[in-house]
Design a protein that fits this description.
The complex is a heterotrimer of chains A (331), B (517) and C (260).
Chain A: H1 6-37, H2 42-47, H3 53-62, H4 69-81, H5 95-130, H6 135-149, H7 152-166, H8 179-185, H9 188-225, H10 228-235, H11 240-270, H12 272-278, H13 283-292, H14 296-324
Helix pairs in contact in A: 1-14, 5-6, 5-9, 5-11, 5-14, 6-9, 7-9, 7-12, 8-9, 9-11, 11-14, 12-13, 13-14
Chain B: H1 4-21, E1 33-38, H2 53-62, E2 67-69, E3 75-77, E4 80-87, E5 90-95, H3 109-120, E6 135-142, E7 145-150, H4 157-160, H5 168-174, E8 188-194, E9 198-203, E10 216-221, H6 225-234, E11 239-241, H7 246-253, E12 258-273, H8 283-292, H9 295-301, E13 308-309, H10 333-342, E14 355-356, E15 359-360, E16 362-368, H11 372-387, E17 391-397, H12 399-408, E18 413-418, H13 424-432, H14 446-457, H15 461-478, E19 481-494
Parallel strand pairs in B: 1-10, 1-11, 16-17, 16-18
Antiparallel strand pairs in B: 2-3, 4-5, 5-7, 6-7, 8-9, 9-10, 11-19, 12-18, 12-19, 13-19, 14-15
Helix pairs in contact in B: 8-10, 13-14, 14-15
Chain C: H1 2-12, H2 49-85, H3 87-102, H4 105-116, H5 120-147, H6 150-157, H7 162-198, H8 210-219, H9 225-253
Helix pairs in contact in C: 1-2, 1-9, 2-3, 2-5, 2-7, 3-5, 4-5, 5-7, 6-7, 7-8, 7-9, 8-9
The chains are: A mainly alpha (331), B alpha+beta (517), C mainly alpha (260).
């Protein structure tokens, strides 16, 4: 039991990272099985209304679908291990390229919406906690309650209707210039374009998390305010505000980080409905369409990437726990 | 630090509002740029492999075929200057001179031969291969002449000769990449493709048609019908077309910025009745179902007059063949009830559901989840059937699952459609011939077989008209299909756009004459 | 709480709220706004919206209860096993949890429903498979903590079998976090069902489902806003009710949060 947690942390991290492999494998196999269970197959999807017995048989043969299932599974895993994600059946392009072209869009939306949620939710929660019991507190919490109860897609459509159509302030669909590139270039026009397209879908996605985070922050803060050491610190005469921020916030961080981590993972693949409504060219939409068109390679590749990203992120979150709260040790 | 937790969100909010309200100008289209809103991303831009509407729209700009079909579906010269039928089974096409692909290489007969030969090759996943099967050989007579040899006379051949011609050199050079980097002879050149976002084309000044009036054509992919319509209304796009939601069309008609053009298209929505099902195989049941369908009400209420009520399997677009004198059974509830009784179905146990020999009259109507209008029609039909004593239920699945069921014959009644029916043979042969590859309902009628074979061989328009009308007459009585609507084709255009001529096949061929000032 | 009560009442005894048959339709009257004959208007094919929503409560609650119930059952069982037996059992079960968690929830649900064929059973099955992991995790954590406690040692010392220990001593401690999670989970289940319907893979028509109604309502949002408004409100109110219930239970169980 060394006093420095570092070697143990490294061991822990390595172990967690290694564990990603069976998780990825498991996800890959489950996806494969699920896809096979889907009625209809890519041959039918490709042929569309030209589908006929002989043509479907020909396509299935060309796509390798008439081989025995274990062989298909074996080939698929073998290729995946070598990093060959194959070629999309309906979109006729390398799967990796499709994923790489849609991933930035999803990441951009996810990061933007989480930032909005954090920047909006935490201060709101702090405010409510500080003004506990007052009208400010009640109204904020009421809004937050509504926020976590509202179906995402309803909000999205309402926002489009109000801001894009009635007021014509913001575009109704699509993604503008990539935000990072725009910021780097420093071109104000590009940045504006990027942000204008991001606001509505970003806010739609963020709203739930914003509400959740504000409730969570308030709760965490209130809990901490009861702790003895806070009372002691206050007795020492430090200014109330500093007491709040330094002690309370750090303790509240733990659940907040959990939620942020969870929601980020959620946004990665779960933004499907938002992406559909706003025509946002992200991975969620890519996968849903691929499922509908039985485009197996795309679904398999995308799910694998999402699963790996999400698991990686979980490890990061767990490591952040240890960082924040020295009491947590991973042995 | 003092009011940070209050100030920060306020600042952010102000920033957000500021961004939202600063607008450079109302969304005015740049001159010479046409922005089109479409519903799905193209699957592939290789014309031999393409099978979705967006791909076709883009391909029509980037490529040309030997000929093209006008608004009346008549062939007119494109890459082929002229053609002759040397014998009943042989066609010769003479190519236009001095046509170049976008990469500068000249178009030759070899490219035409390459295009058609590869399509016919079973190792290429060409979905439309079935249409070209009667072609046994394609050969270059010389650099500018191509001969097609057929296994038997094939009247619809010219209708399918609008297949885009690919550059053999480019295909061999780019391989599978060709699907994402098309090289053709068309009025517009391919520039870029951001998946699920937009496809950009620019003018080809050396086009054999002459310089196009537009500088750029941008296809914006907006899957949601309402969002797309909203984009047209707000000026974010200049042109949209079917599929559109009926209520959006109704609203767009009232918009001052937009012109709506509506015409009858090349598609139908119909009920496919499984002749192998023990209940549906009784023609009286099929007729009773037909009699129960309030066709006009459906078209008016659900489709809001976007489509037309259908009379038979003949399409109005088939000029010369179509006649509205051939009609399917009409809306007649009394007659329906009489037919059901005649077929032996009565409510013997007074439970509200008709039965016969201890079996309940149970009917499942299936359709696909991608089309909300069809879902509503099915919901309505279920309700109507139930009130007539039929135990009806719905089954809504994704399209591939539905086609799987059709193929397996695992259904009773399916509401689905056909698109792109450029020729009566396209709309009837595979569907009704006992050897037809898409005769999912397993309709078997030797007289129809003979008629369909004849229709394929005879070239004379009057003969073909007679033949296909006879087929339609029988179908309207036997009812393996009950055609619900003739699909309409609707285009919404920003008034600033000039020179766009809609084509019922949905083709955007007129874009080379379109301009945006 | 009152909200929830109303909704449960509506599900159980719909006749109190409406005498209209939810399947009866008048296509000519489709998409009509609230009027005398139809207190909150009609839906996209002319059925009375109020009765659709009232009967829809049954469907939504059924989906919520069944899917959460199933998820809880599986999650609690696996969580108890993982926490109590540790090592091998813990390892496999937690890896299973990781794998399921790695899937984006909605994609997993969508794929499952597509594979099983759309319909209420598939939706429930899909949601169970998506939600069980969170219960398993929590239960495992609690079990891990509890099993080291003195009273468990004592029970073992007097010869109590594993099953008995699990059932009588550990399980009751697991209950409170599970109940809180479950009530919140019901709300999520209702929203999940409507999301699936929005994407086209939910409960089959003509069953009155809030999700379907909202999905069609958003399509007709500009012509007939009442459909989306009221069905969205119904969903939101139910979720709100469950959330408040969950909060209330948590307040009851954890004295720290009693307002001062």
């Amino acid at each position: 039991m060394s006093p420095l947690p570092l070697p143990r942390m490294v061991r822990y991290t390595t172990r967690r990272l290694l564990l990603l492999v069976p998780v990825a494998l498991g996800a890959a196999v489950i996806t494969f099985v699920l896809l096979l269970l889907l009625p209809g197959d890519p041959a039918i999807a490709l042929l569309g209304q030209e589908a006929s017995g002989p043509e479907i048989a020909r396509f299935r043969n060309l796509l390798g679908l008439d081989r025995p299932v274990p062989i298909q599974l074996g080939l698929y895993l073998w290729r995946m291990a070598r990093g060959d994600f194959g070629r999309s059946i309906t979109l006729d392009a390398p799967v990796l390229r499709l994923i790489l072209s849609t991933l930035p869009a999803t990441l951009e939306l996810a990061i933007f919406s989480i930032t909005l949620a954090v920047v909006g939710g935490i201060p709101l929660g702090l405010l409510a906690a500080r003004r506990r019991g007052t009208a400010v507190d009640t109204t904020t919490m009421l809004l937050a309650q509504l926020g976590v109860s509202m179906p995402v897609f309803w909000l999205g459509v309402l926002l489009i209707l109000l801001f894009a159509v009635k007021l014509n302030w913001l575009p109704s669909f699509g993604r503008g210039a990539p935000l990072v590139a725009a910021l780097v270039s420093g071109n104000a026009g590009l940045i504006m374009d990027s942000l204008r397209h991001l606001i509505l879908p970003g806010f739609t996605l963020a709203f739930f998390n914003l509400a959740l985070l504000s409730r969570l922050t308030r709760w965490a803060l209130l809990e901490v305010l009861e702790e003895d050491y806070v009372r002691t610190a206050r007795a020492k005469g430090q200014r109330e505000r500093i007491v709040l921020y330094r002690h309370a916030l750090r303790n509240a961080l733990l659940p907040i980080v959990t939620i942020v981590g969870l929601q980020f993972g959620n946004a990665l693949g779960g933004a499907v409905v938002t992406e559909t409504i706003f025509g946002w060219p992200g991975m969620g939409r890519l996968v849903v369409q691929a499922i509908g068109q039985r485009d197996f390679p795309v679904v398999q590749g995308a799910v694998l990437v999402l699963a790996l990203l999400f698991s990686l992120f979980n490890v990061l979150v767990d490591l952040t726990y240890a960082f924040i709260d020295p009491r947590i040790r991973y042995g | 630090m003092r009011m940070l937790h209050v100030r920060l969100p306020v600042v952010v909010l102000m920033l957000v509002l500021a961004i939202g309200t600063t607008r450079t100008a109302p969304a005015a289209p740049a001159a010479g740029v046409l922005r089109i809103g479409i519903d799905v991303d193209a699957g592939t831009l290789d014309p031999r492999l393409a099978n979705d509407t967006t791909a076709r729209r883009v391909i029509e700009q980037v490529y040309d075929g030997l000929l093209e079909l006008d608004a009346q579906l008549r062939p007119r010269p494109a890459l082929a200057e002229s053609w002759t039928q040397a014998s009943p089974t042989s066609w010769v096409f003479k190519l236009r001179r001095n046509v170049r692909f976008h990469d500068g290489t000249p178009l030759t007969a070899a490219d035409v031969v390459f295009t058609y030969t590869t399509i016919l090759d079973p190792a290429l996943r060409a979905p439309l291969r079935g249409l070209y099967l009667p072609i046994t050989r394609v050969e270059a007579v010389d650099n500018e002449t191509v001969r097609f040899t057929l296994s038997a006379p094939y009247a619809p051949l010219l209708k399918y000769a609008d297949m885009a011609i690919v550059s053999r050199a480019a295909v061999e050079r780019l391989g599978a990449e060709y699907a994402s980097r098309p090289v053709g002879t068309g009025a517009y050149k391919f520039v870029s493709w951001q998946r699920n976002s937009r496809i950009v084309l620019e003018a080809n000044p050396d086009s054999w048609r002459g310089r196009p009036k537009l500088n750029q054509v941008i296809f914006n992919i907006i899957p949601d019908n309402t969002t797309r319509a909203a984009a047209l209304e707000s000026g974010d796009v200049d042109l949209i077309h079917s599929p559109l939601s009926p209520q959006d069309v109704a609203r767009l008609r009232g918009s001052p910025r937009v012109t709506i053009t509506q015409m009858t298209g090349l598609g139908i929505t119909y009920l496919n009745m499984n002749m192998m099902d023990p209940i549906v195989r009784d023609v009286r049941i099929r007729r009773a179902i037909a009699h129960l369908i309030p066709q006009t009400t459906i078209v008016r209420q659900i489709y809001r007059e976007m489509d037309r009520p259908a009379t038979s399997v003949l399409l109005p677009a088939w000029s010369g063949v179509f006649t509205d004198e051939i009609v399917q059974p009409g809306h007649d509830i009394a007659r329906a009830k009489a037919l059901l009784a005649e077929a032996g179905w009565t409510d013997s146990n007074r439970d509200g559901v008709l039965d016969k020999d201890g079996q309940r009259l149970a009917l499942t109507i299936r359709t696909h989840s991608e089309d909300p209008n069809r879902i509503q029609v099915v919901e309505l039909l279920i309700s109507i059937l139930r009130s007539s004593g039929i135990e009806a239920r719905a089954e809504i699945t994704e399209f591939p699952a539905l086609v799987g069921a059709l193929l397996a014959g695992n259904y009773q009644v399916v509401l689905v459609g056909w698109l792109g029916l450029v020729d009566p043979d396209r709309g009837m042969f595979n569907q009704f011939h006992s050897k037809g590859t898409q005769n999912w309902e397993k309709y078997n009628n030797p007289r129809i077989d003979a008629l369909l074979d004849e229709g394929r061989q005879k070239a004379d328009p009057t003969e073909r008209a007679r033949i296909y009308r006879d087929v339609a007459r029988v179908i309207a009585t036997d009812l393996p299909y009950y055609v619900l609507t003739y699909q309409g084709y609707i285009v919404g255009v920003n008034r600033r756009v000039q020179g766009f001529v809609p084509n019922p096949s949905g083709s955007f061929r007129s874009l080379w004459t379109t301009s945006v000032p | 709480m009152a909200v929830l009560f109303v909704i449960i009442l509506a599900a159980a005894v719909p006749v109190l709220f409406t005498r209209v048959n939810p399947d009866e339709l008048d296509i000519m009257a489709r998409l009509s706004p609230p009027s005398a004959g139809h207190p909150i208007g009609t839906d996209h094919i002319g059925r009375d919206l109020l009765s659709r929503l009232v009967y829809g409560a049954r469907v939504s609650l059924l989906v919520a209860v069944a899917s959460v119930g199933g998820a809880v059952a599986i999650g609690v069982l696996l969580g108890l096993l993982a926490g109590y037996y540790g090592r091998w059992a813990d390892g496999t079960i937690m890896r299973l949890v990781d794998v399921f968690l790695a899937f984006p929830a909605i994609l997993l649900a969508l794929a499952l429903v597509a594979a099983l064929g759309a319909g209420i059973t598939s939706v429930i099955a899909a949601l169970v498979l998506v939600f069980w992991t969170q219960y398993a995790r929590v239960v495992r954590a609690v079990t891990l903590a509890e099993k080291e406690k003195a009273y468990v040692e004592a029970a073992r010392a007097i010869g109590a079998g594993d099953v008995r220990i699990l059932a009588r001593h550990i399980f009751p401690n697991v209950l409170s976090p599970v109940i809180i999670l479950a009530t919140l989970g019901m709300g999520t289940a209702v929203v999940a069902e409507s999301a699936l319907s929005f994407l086209g893979m939910g409960v089959q028509p003509p069953a009155p489902s809030w999700g379907w109604t909202l999905a069609f309502g958003t399509r007709y949002l500009r012509d007939a806003p009442h459909i989306a408004t009221f069905s969205g409100l119904a969903i939101m109110a139910t979720v709100l009710g469950f959330n408040l219930l969950g909060d209330g239970i948590r307040d009851l169980l954890d004295p720290k949060f009693r307002p001062q």
